[in-house]
Structures are given as C-alpha cells and as structure tokens.
Amino acid sequence: MLPGAMSAEADPGGPRDDRPRSIPALHLLAAIVESSDDAIISKNRDGIIQTWNAAAERMFGIAAADAVGRHISIIIPHDRLAEEQAIMSKLLAGQRIEHFETVRRRADGSSISVSLTISPIKDDTGRIVAASKIARDISVRLEAVARERELLTELEHANRRKDEFLATLSHELRTPLAAIRNAEAVLNAALGEPDLARPALATMNRQIAQMTRLLDDLLDVSRITHDSLQLRQSRVDLAAVLGHAVDTVRPIFDQSGLRLSVELPDKPVYVLADSARLAQVFGNLLTNAAKYTPDGGRVVVAAERDGDDVTVSVTDTGIGIPPEMLGRVFELFTQVEGPYEREQGGLGIGLSLVKRLVEMHGGSVTAQSEGRGKGSRFVVRLPVLPGEAVTPQPSQSVGGGVSAVSRRILVVDDEPDSALTLAMLLQLRGHHADVAHDGAEALRQADAVEPDVVLLDIGLPGMDGYEVCRRLRERPRGRSMFIVALTGWGQEEDRRRTREAGFDLHLVKPVDPEELLRVLATTSS
Ligand code: ADP
User: Looking at 383, 413, 434, which one is the last position of a domain?
Assistant: First the structure.
C-alpha cells in the first residue's frame, strides 16, 4: 500500500467514449511500485519515511502505517548509522547511489543483505526535496556466492589431497616392487644355491604381503565410500579380538624393539562386533603406534569398563601429533607430514578406516596428544553387550586339518604367469594340475580331464568365468566339481554374482597359496 499515493479516477460525468481508455500515468506508476518485488521507499531530506510499498512491508516486517512518518534509521543496524549520513550527503550533493551492497535490519532484529539504489528527487525549482530508495534482497545470492567459494576451497583441498595421495600410492607400491625385483634377481643368480635363495624368497614373501595389505586397504576405502562394507556381527569377547590384533602386529614390535603391554579388565567384556573388522581397527592403531614410535619406545593397550561402554586406548611414547592435526588425522588421505617429508610408509587411509569401522560398531574414536614428541593416544569407545559370548563359527574356507589327498585341478586364467605359477605350486604340493587360458579351452579341458576342482578366473576372453561355471554345472560330472572363483573383484555384488553362477567359493587375488591349499584339503569332491 502506498499511503498518500496518487490516485486518479475517470470523471463519471464526462463524455461517453467507447475507445479503450488509457490508464492515468500516476495510477499506473503506483501500481508498478506496489507490485514490485524490490522494496521501494521514499524519504524526505531529514530521512523521514514518506512512502513504503508492499515489498518493503514483506522485506522488513514493518507495516506501511507503522513506517511512514518514522526515521529511516528504523531499518539501519546501529553499527551502520554512519553509513546513512554518508548516503544523505551524497544525495544532497545531487548524486545517485547505485547497487550499494549493505545490511539492513528487520523488525525482529534479524539482518538482511540488500543492494540499495538511491536517487535524489527534485521539486520544480530543482531543489532536492526527497530521495527514492530501492532495496533488493540479495541474501540468497550472497549465500550462493559464499557456498560457491566454500565448495571451491573444498574442491582445491580435495584435489591437493588426491595428488598427494597418488604420489604416496605410487611411492608405496614402488617400494615393495623394488624389493621383489631385487629378490627376483638374487633368485636368478642363486639358482642351485638354496642358502642365497631362502632370504630372497623371504623378502618377496614380506613385500607381497605388504602390497596385498595396501590393496586390501584401498578396497576397503572404496567399499566405505560406496557404503557397501558389511559387518558380520556376533557377540564377541573383546579380549579375544585384542589378542588377535596383537598377534598380527607382534612381528613389527619384535623387529623394532618396542615394548608392548596389554591391560584388560578383570571380568570379560563382550561387544556386538565383526571380530575380524574390530581386530583390523586395533591392528591399524597398533601398527601406527609402532610406525610413529622410535625404537626402544613403549606402547600400552588398555581396556576399561566405563558405565555401559568399554574404552580401549592405544598409547605410545612416539612422535606425537600437533594439536591442529588431532581432528584431521581421521580424514581420508591425511598425513601429518607431506608425502616427501615422511619417513614412514602408508597411504593415509588407516585412520579413516578405523573411524568408519568403529562408527559402524556404534562407537567412537578420538586422538589425543600433548604435541610433537609427546606421544599419542587413540581411544576407541564401544557399547558393551551384557551376557556370555557365543563361540564364533569356524569360517568355511579355513576350517579343518590339511589332508594329503591329491586332487585333479584345472587352473583357468588368461594371465599365463598366474596360471603357470599356480599350477606349479599345486604340482609341488602333490596335486595334478592342468591349465586353460580361456573359457572354451576350459570347457574342453574339463571334459577331457574331469577335474575335482576348477580354479576359475572371472575375466576371460570370449566367455567369462560366470558362463564357464554355468556350463560346467550343466554337465553331469560338473555338478560335483568344486568350483572356486579366483578374481580381482571382491565386492559383495561380485560375490553374489559368483554364488548365483554356481561357484562354491569366491577368493580374491592375490590368494594366499597356503590358504588355497587348506581349502583344497577340505573339499570333499
Ligand atoms: P598412514 O598410512 O599415513 O599411517 P593413517 O590414516 O593411519 O595413515 O594415519 C594418518 C596420519 O596420522 C599419519 O600419517 C600420521 O601422520 C598420523 N598418526 C597416526 N597414528 C599416529 C601415532 N600413533 N603417532 C603419531 N602420528 C600418528
């Protein structure tokens, strides 16, 4: 509404005229002002509000009747009152102010970002008598600009971390590869000299385990990113989980002369957990403690009941963490030292896995440190389950003793080196092994040699492993074969597909040869 607004009516007594009548200019102007989305206000030389349109009512939450006659400072924040004086002086000097971005105040005290365009209004003599003010709400635009800036910073940050990660990844993969290559050269030179060959083999073994661990971590990160990591939870004894984690890191501690002690509560504590994943959590924390603690240091694992929870702290006397990094070390690819200053290996993903896995168990993890050189403590908090533990079922693949039964095995892999070395290993362990390099050859060989076990790669030229498996199962002899998928793909979806195609077991490459031999020893076909 425009109080005092100009209105004009057609004279009812005037001559009849059927032509469309033009709308009087003032009336039109008033309607335009009233329907504008921008607040349009006029004020006199003293800053007293003269008109106040509907958009101004909406924008500032003040009715026209309450605004007209009051000073314009009702919409100016106290700390910006000086701004108004500057505006007035410019206006009185006949200048127009365009797109001046500032903040104004609503009736409820909240702020609103506006762009102001203010023009002087002159009377017939050219004297400035008032000012018109158009205020446009720009909060949405400013928020969008701020969000855009934020996203850009985040993006740059993520991009930098990705580059650092790639540099770290290639470094981490090169290190074990270099050792394997050296060991291979030693083996070649030492053919027929077992004393030289043995340490080279041990090196290869360690470095392959290291690369496998790196790849497992990468796979876990990808599962976590895609929310496809699944827990197999049961009631487990926390002491058993910690014992398992300690066993896996014991060699690292022995090698570096670090002392490791474990303090457990008097009574057993049970948690609802995937014991392998929880052991991975403590294994990661312990590996870090060992990595970031100089030789001769000490690491303590302490589990304590705390109400309905249990806390497990891993405390070391190592290099510590600067305060500003304490919250960030759990972020993916974050490492306190940059890729080129770091002495220790790693991809900067261990702690983000720890955090995610602990959260998936309904718990939390925090990092504490007094700063550089002052040691670190990681505390995992988990909810405790009342009652007794259920003895975990032995897993399908590793149960049972190793029998000496010789099997006829068909190895199907299009990578000749993989197929050949696996067949050689099987032969060395007393099995009979044949090799095929594609699906069609696999089916021909299977018909000819009737294997007990087929170790079948999935990605094969022509006919893939799923199809080979389905066709084998259609054969009378194929129904009783033990068919194992040996593949680089290990996601839940991949496992479902191999199950549906009729595989008995899904193993992810690189398969630990000893585990494979144990599996073969327990198959009954
Ligand atoms: P990384 O593979 O680099 O060890 P993590 O995600 O496990 O990756 O750890 C991230 C970073 O946190 C490490 O690079 C290291 O800077 C720091 N950190 C982790 N554990 C410790 C610890 N016990 N003492 C000191 N710093 C640690």
Answer: 383
